[in-house]
Amino acid sequence: MQTVLVINSKGGSGKTTIASNLASLFAASHLKTALMDYDPQGSSLHWNQLREQGDSPAIHMVDASHFKVGVTRTFQLRIPHNTERVVIDAPAGMCKKILNEMVIKADVIIVPVVPSPIDIHASSEFIYELKLIINACRHNHTIIGVVANRIRAKKALYRPLKHFLDELNIPFVAALADTDNYIRAVESGLGVHELSPQTVRLELSQWLPLVKWLAAHSSVSHRSQSVPLMAGSARG
């Protein structure tokens, strides 16, 4: 099983968009998938409710943002035993206890970063904090990658961040444009990979490096499966 944590302490980085698209990609690729929503806003929960109204491959949903009375935290966060992929949608602000809980679960961490000097500075500090937590609790087993999200600017803005990532040996995995196709998909509880391939050529090409990177870091202790770029049946 591979657990992917999508996280950034800075709000507005598009964490839910990436998390929901990852979950839908895995599910459409015939992988038993669970999606954990740690965000009190419940955007992933709402997205999955829309998804359940259609005939898309099912995703097991876990509301992790609220502590339920009368049950243990372990029971609340349980997932089906045959789950092959878990995606965690993290909130923007979180206490250290919840941050540690999410990081401990993760095999792979994706940090989406928006191309603005303020976001890049804040994200750099957060990535350094993540590295410290990983070193303390997972003995460097967790992999971190950065995704440039909601791209509408020149790549030159990322040079300071790339230099910082190089110093920490963290890869800059992919750059995703801010397009209306993500809005179209979310309105139907879908991911862009489930839309008609003719309409999402740009998005598919931009996701390919991220898909390959995740496949390369899938857990070796379980059955390893590569995730195809065009997963599931295309929709018009």
Structure description:
The chain has 236 residues and is α/β, with parallel strands linked by helices. It has a single domain, classed as P-loop containing nucleotide triphosphate hydrolases (Rossmann fold, 3-Layer(aba) Sandwich), CATH 3.40.50.300. Helix content is 39%, strand content 17%. The chain has a 7-stranded parallel β-sheet, with helices on both faces. Helix 5 runs parallel beside helix 6. The two termini are 32 Å apart. Residues 220-236 have low confidence and may be disordered.
Evaluate the radius of gyration: 17 Å
Report how far the terminal alpha carbons are from each other: 32 Å
Structural class: alpha/beta
The tally of beta strands, per DSSP, is: 7
Give the helix tally.
Answer: 8
Helix-strand string = EHEHEHEHEHEHEHH
Read across the widest sheet, the strand sequence of neighbours is: 3-2-4-1-5-6-7
CATH class: Alpha Beta
Number of domains: 1
Principal-axis shape: globular
Main β-sheet: number of strands, strand sense, barrel status?
Answer: 7 strands, parallel
* CATH topology category name: Rossmann fold
- Helical content class: 25-40%
Give the mean pLDDT. 86
The CATH architecture category equals: 3-Layer(aba) Sandwich
Q: Which residues sit in consecutive blocks of at least 5 with pLDDT less than 50?
A: 220-236
